[in-house]
From TrEMBL, chain A:
PANTHER family: PHOSPHATE TRANSPORT SYSTEM PERMEASE PROTEIN PSTA, PHOSPHATE TRANSPORT SYSTEM PERMEASE PROTEIN PSTA-RELATED. It comes from the Bacteria. Its main location: membrane. The lineage of its organism: Bacteria, Pseudomonadati, Deferribacterota, Deferribacteres, Deferribacterales. GO terms for molecular function: phosphate transmembrane transporter activity. The chain crosses the membrane at residues 21-41, 165-194, 214-234, 240-264, 285-307, 359-379. It is a multi-pass membrane protein. Signal peptide: none annotated. This is Phosphate transport system permease protein PstA. Residues 169-376 form the ABC transmembrane type-1 domain. The gene is pstA. Gene3D superfamilies: MetI-like. It is found in: Cell membrane.
Automatic annotation (TrEMBL), chain B:
Part of the binding-protein-dependent transport system for phosphate; probably responsible for the translocation of the substrate across the membrane. Keywords: Cell membrane, Membrane, Phosphate transport, Transmembrane, Transmembrane helix, Transport. It is a multi-pass membrane protein. One of its GO terms (biological process) is phosphate ion transport. This is Phosphate transport system permease protein. It comes from Geovibrio thiophilus. It is found in: Cell membrane. The chain crosses the membrane at residues 42-63, 70-91, 111-133, 180-204, 224-246, 258-276, 379-401. InterPro entries: MetI-like (IPR000515), MetI-like_sf (IPR035906), Phosphate_PstC (IPR011864), PstC_N (IPR022182).
Amino acid sequence: MAYLNEHDKKLKKRYAAEKRFQLYGKAALLLAVAFLVFFFYDMIKTGYTAFSQTEIKAEVTFNEETLQMPNRAVSKADRDVLSRGFLRILPQVVEEHPEYMNTTQTLWVVAKGDVDQYMKNKPNRLNDREIEYISNLRGADKIRLAFNTGFFTTGDSKMPEIAGIYAAMMGTILVLVVTMLLSVPLGVMTAIYLEEFAPDNKFTQLIEVNINNLAAIPSIIFGLLGLAIFINFFNVPRSSALVGGLTLALMTLPVMIISTRAALRAVPESIRHGAYGVGASPWQVVWHHVLPVSMPGILTGWIIGLARAMGETAPLLIVGMMAYIPDVPSGVTSATTVLPAQIYTWSATSLRPYVERTAAGILVLLTVLLALNFTAIWLRNKYERKW
Amino acid sequence: MLITIIIILAVLSGLSFAYGAHRAKVWEDSKQRLSSRPGHYAWYAVIKFTVPSWLLLFAALLLKTTKIAVISPAVVLACSALLVIAGFIISSKKFSPLLNARVIVEKHIRYLLIAASLVSILTTVGIVFSILFEAIIFFKHVNVIDFLTGTSWNPDTAFLEGAGRESEHAAKPEFGSAPIFAGTFMITLISLSVSVPVGLFAAIFLSEYASNNFRKVFKPVLEILAGIPTVVYGFFAALTVSPLVVKVAGFFGLQADYTNALAPGLVMGIMIIPFISSLSDDVINAVPQSLREGGLALGTTKSETIKQIILPAAMPGIVSAILLAVSRAVGETMIVVMAAGLRPNLTWNPLEGMTTVTVQIVDALTGDQAFDSLATLSAFGLGLVLLIFTFIINLVSTYIVRRYRKIYE
């Protein structure tokens, strides 16, 4: 009996250990998921307010004098609560609406950053007089929170209330076009060579080792490469979309090659043999049969590479894409900023109103990236064929 | 001018294509048997007539952008014209239905493919040389041993040397990188102490306990963590986690800096979880089922089977996953740039600010010092150390994986 008791005790202990072990696994998973939930909650909480913007109904006088001295276009009390950014663009407003000239219009005008923060119950630097004026405005229904279209239609600014992500979005698109134009053909060609043509010799082994090594190299090293080779040796203009695109292309190349190879490898040998059997040449086999069949897989790889390049920041900082660039780039050689770099520059400023803009920029970036990744997954599931 | 030349060459290529296609069509219309498809003849014409000119243009462009030599566009144009005419005279004679254009065209396609594969080798060579070259200049001024073992990092006065004012009473720049390596080590350690247990246990649970549907949902969810851009993690670490760490430390009566090493370490650990869990999941799944059944048949519980049979069998793969995570953590930039400090600090206290190799690289290269100043070049010295470290880790992990494979195949 004593012996059996002893045995039971041991068994109980072992079962308890088993339960504990399972619990650790569940806890680990829970921790990761909880972090993810907390992270998204925190970002949305910080960022959603930036999608609305305080506007004030103000009387704006348009005439020769106020175009010269915009401060006189609005009343003195309004001047303290309106964005100086709006007053600066008065001539543009007249250009768009010539009929405003020599009249006084009642317009909804963007309020200054601290007023906006006050309206959103966030820390601000308004004095009592201004707060009183705003509550008067509120009583007269002359102040409102409207959807922040400016965030998507203007570039960076030193005034947080009119800073937007338009220039950065355009820059991102431009950089990614350069990246994809380079890395897609190079990646596909390399993958086709390695998978379909290359003999198994020292040379191909060298290429393979290289690709695997490149995939593991930290992204910042690619920034050093871009700086030393593209900027200092090939004299590509600093902070241009060209140098950013080239750097990111080299960085995403291993991803492209590895995913394309996987897609090509998934095509069964029988398809190749069938094509050879009717007299196709090696290239005809690839071009007419293997590539069309493996296209969904290759496309998935492109999207994943694109998403990777889109979120990358470190190498772009090194090649100078973190400068203050408020304008949409006019070409691949003009100064450009990209969305992640814009997020970085905003997060580095000390002005409070930029915090919500940074988080809002992050929300936009994450939305696009998640959409890209879901497209990739959807594509893979839809076209995945079991041979 | 460049655009003009490109347009001229493009038009010539188009004409060559049309010429080849036309010749082939004439043969086909006269019911001759062709040894290749008509398209092959067209491409054959393009390759033989205009490809040499394209290569010439490319070479001239390379020479021009690198400022080695400037070849005037007129010369390029004249040479291209000569090459096209020469190609036409030599190759148009060879046109015949018996010409095996397909083989020749495919040979050139293969050259193109090889050239594309060479880019990856060139990239590696470019990385190694660009970093080595600048690092050598740096190490001419700074002793390697001093660099690796010195404990004082103070590069800010390096610009005086460039300005010829090194004799003035400023402190000499110092490049002792031990505190930087220590900071990198510390933050890597913190991140691994989060990611290894969480990633490993998550992988074990997903591959051994969870149902198929559960795994299908939660594996992609974990992978979202790897898809979030690092700049976003950096913002999160600096804005949310750092103040949280300060608050919690304050609760325990400890003093923490706002740029403490703990916050970036923790966030980086979260980021690395999917790298560990995905790779471990793969190797755990690769352990043969017979080992599991053998263990269970001996009367072990499931967790005992996992701990004493599966994990030892999968250990090489897990170790290589951890090594890859180490190289990820060491090379990670944005999180530490945004959340860790700039102050080189030789300490064991993770609540103090520390700096890492990558932070110093970014700091040196985005600063306002001239490119040839020692402070800027120090980035390449640090980059070289980072590169060598990554290579070694990669080599070791490949070696381990290769050995492991031999056991179960």
